[in-house]
Amino acid sequence: MEKFKEFLKRKNITISAKKYGIDTLGAMAQGLFATLLIGTIISTIGEQTGLEILVKIGGYAKAATGPGMAIAIGYSLAAPPLVLFSLAAVGAAANELGGAGGPLAVLVVAIFATEFGKAVSKETKIDIIVTPAVTILIGVLLSMWWAPGIGWVASQVGNAIMLATELQPFFMGIIVSVLVGIALTLPISSAAICAALSLTGLAGGAAVAGCCAQMVGFAVLSFRENKWGGLVAQGIGTSMLQMGNIVKNPRIWLPAILTSAITGPIATCVFHLQMDGPAIASGMGTCGLVGQIGVYTGWVNDIQSGLKNAITAFDWVGLILICFILPGVLTALFGLFFRKIGWIKENDLKLDL
Length: 353
Fold this sequence. Notes:
mainly alpha, 2 domains, 15 helices
């Protein structure tokens, strides 16, 4: 056992829930962003402007989704070069065989392929053959064995959430909005979770509402401490910046959480806000305005498919209210109340910017 532990240490293989469950999720989200999401945005711009070249470029970016995710995951696990580059084939196989739940299949398979590849890396004199061969064989064989099942489970869970939201938009609007919003602020990736579950439609709209409540909410709530720098860093960056302060005083999280519990059902029941763009955008909120671009992309897709006649003023009003105005106003009001009763004190939300 000691020799095995020494071997793992020498190969930089650390069996860790944080590394496999948090670090890799964040990396996968970056891989998704750099391929599927940015490709969708470029394609949409091309479709709206009539520039066919942008549509083609976006298509190429989207086609690299599986490899992009797998390589990002390998990078987070400190994969050596030959392992890292070999993961392109692994990601392509897992994403294709995983179907709608492809991102989750890529996550699981890429972790195993990376660690097996690291284990054999530089152990033989023909490393240039052995390492990529082992990485690809393990990854693709596991993809053929596991990916369809993993994809099916992820798809069924996502479909169940979306169906429940359609049937119970009020209660599920609250649940999805609050939980995805919390995931966005925690050191895990809400975007990767939404992508893995293919969370779109009305449930995707609730997820967008929850994420915006956290980001815009913390940006406004902490304005007196962090001024304009904090407004921008949290409002279009990430509310995860507040995690250190949340650990010190968890009650500073309540205004944003309560706001998400309000904006979620308003999104689902009043404005019927849907995410018909890429699922990853459901978990991005106002980060780079990706959530809003995703909603707009969905509108465009629905018009092209005949599901929607046109983008109305009501659509725009709902998007602006849910994503910007209500999160700012409601969180500020809750914040005033909690400051008044002493639950939030001066500099509880201060960031080192």
